[in-house]
Design goal:
The protein is α/β, with parallel strands linked by helices. Helix content is 36%, strand content 18%. The protein has nine helices and nine strands. The chain has helices at residues 20-27, 64-79, 84-88, 104-110, 128-134, 150-161, 171-176, 209-227, 229-233; strands at 2-7, 32-37, 50-51, 61-62, 91-101, 115-120, 137-140, 194-195, 198-199. The strands form three sheets. A five-stranded parallel beta sheet has the order 2-1-6-5-7. A two-stranded antiparallel sheet has the order 3-4. α2 (64-79) packs parallel to α5. The protein is elongated and about 70 Å long. It binds S-adenosylmethionine. The site of S-adenosylmethionine has 19 residues, from β5.
Length: 234
């Protein structure tokens, strides 16, 4: 999978992408991530990327020219190694508090797309004409406002990389994760068996796989009802 990210703050991505599962996935060519600086596509002596909003009001708006320039240049480069069909399947996503709220089923759908382009907004957001002409989908990571799309892009990338075959060492464990089957995960315990007089549930030590599986399933249902009753309605 290829993921291109457009940002005004590309350095923000270095550390999170240089650790753990994401780094391993990049090193093993499971995913290829390229970060593009939107400012590189700004024209003029000052390479301005933002301007005052028409109609007044506070804050600045990201100008259309650098974003059109960046998206056109990236797609042009991609077209050199892709067929027309493959180009048509590329999806350009704007991270935005106005988008559909990200969930596990969206992540699962996104891993079927080979090429993603993620656009990170800043300031008051981006010129609406970019959204109308070049954005296929707007995705939000929750109903609150962050200062930029970089953290949401990292959240999105992490959540989809986990689902790519080979990215997570123990692939089986992903199937038990919360939200994968519409339920929250059962409680987990590790050594020591007794910690400050608190004991691990007996069934987990029994070696009886069927009993463990049933216990875990029941726990998943009980805690979903308790912590996220809204999930049980679906
Ligand atoms: N004025 C915009 C609005 O009210 O819709 C919010 C702009 S926000 C300060 C700047 C950028 O941060 C957005 O363009 C978007 O890329 C990103 N952003 C902020 N909150 C987000 C969220 N919940 N999910 C995804 N992206 C978000």
């Amino acid at each position: 999978m290829d993921i291109h990210v457009l940002s005004l703050f590309p350095d923000m991505f270095s550390s999170p992408f240089d650790e753990s599962i994401i780094k391993r996935a990049i090193d093993s060519n499971i995913v290829n991530i390229e970060i593009h600086n939107i400012r590189d596509y700004a024209k003029g002596r000052h390479r301005e990327v933002d301007d005052y909003p028409f109609g007044g009001g506070g804050g600045m708006v990201m100008k259309p020219e650098p974003l059109f320039g960046a998206l056109e240049a990236i797609k042009n480069e991609m077209s050199k190694s892709r067929t027309k069909d493959e180009m048509d399947r590329i999806r350009t996503i704007l991270l935005s508090p106005q988008g559909i709220v990200l969930n596990q089923s969206i992540c699962k759908n996104l891993i079927t797309i080979e090429d993603l382009i993620l656009v990170c907004g800043r300031y008051e957001g981006i010129d609406e004409r970019v959204i109308e002409q070049l954005i296929d989908m707007e995705l939000s990571i929750g109903d609150y406002v962050l200062s930029g799309g970089e953290l949401p892009a990292m959240v999105l990338i992490d959540s989809i990389i986990r689902l790519l075959p080979g990215a997570v060492g123990h692939q089986d464990s992903i199937g038990d994760d919360s939200h994968v089957n519409g339920l929250l995960q059962f409680p987990q315990y590790t050594r020591p068996q007794i910690f400050r007089e608190l004991e691990v549930p007996e069934v987990l030590l029994s070696g009886n796989h069927k009993a463990i599986e049933e216990w875990r399933y029941q726990q998943s249902i009980d805690r979903t009802k308790l912590k996220r009753p809204d999930l049980m309605k679906g």
